[in-house]
Structure prediction request, 154 residues.
Amino acid sequence: MAIFLVQHGKSLPEEADPKRHLSPEGAREVERMAAWAQRQGLHVGRIVHSGKQRARQTAELFASMLHPPGGVEERSGLAPLDDPRPVVAWLEKEDAPMLVGHLPFLSRLAALLVAGTPEPPVVSFTHGGIVCLDSRGEGSGWLLAWAVTPALVE
Prediction:
């Protein structure tokens, strides 16, 4: 089973936009990544986001290209400083979920899944990039399968 972790696209600074919408560059990069994922035939069962505007917009852009059968939903517990441990239980029950969120949460979640502890980081995230983790089997943990950043995608 695979899970996909996505750091939201680049956003406007809080001083210019308190809600932190995606910047024009951030939206273009996410659109490019979503189109790449579609061309690769990436199967995503559901897209879950933190509810913050930049994560919601990123999730919606991916959903517009990937059409996840489970749709897009906001979920609590995915904020930047949230503890990743409660997420693991429901994450393992999902079919190929994509989580769109923030640092340091995503970094801590990836480390927890791969290494069994939320620190130190095991992968570097990039705005709009996709990190794929693959399960080694029930109770056997997770491996970093691949990671793609907007800079690598045309």
